[in-house]
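Encode chain A's predicted structure.
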Amino acid sequence: MREVIATDHAPQAIGPYSQAIRAQGLIFTSGQIAIDPATQQVIAGDISAQTDRVLQNLAAILQASDSTLQKVLRCTVFLKNMGDFNAMNEVYGRYFKQSPPARSTVEVARLPKDVLVEIDVIALA
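Encoded structure for chain A:
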């Protein structure tokens, strides 16, 4: 069984995708960028501010899925500039203090809406 997850507490999809899918006891989120769900606009700010907003969005989606960031198994982080790794990692570490999930971090040429970071996760339901 496959269930679409949607919440108004995270940005609405800007294309033909779901915020998340629950299947087989797992939550698969779509990549989240630094959009404020209240305005549906990219927030102003540096990599730290954008990473914080992205993780807030992911937390809201997981909450709507009856899950939490503490149940995340794997993250993929996409950075516009690998030079931002340390600043992103500092904020990321505030959200994943104990038993952090597995993670890959890659630099990409461009992200939607020219943001600095995008993150997706797989979590336990």
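The longest strand covers residues 72-79.
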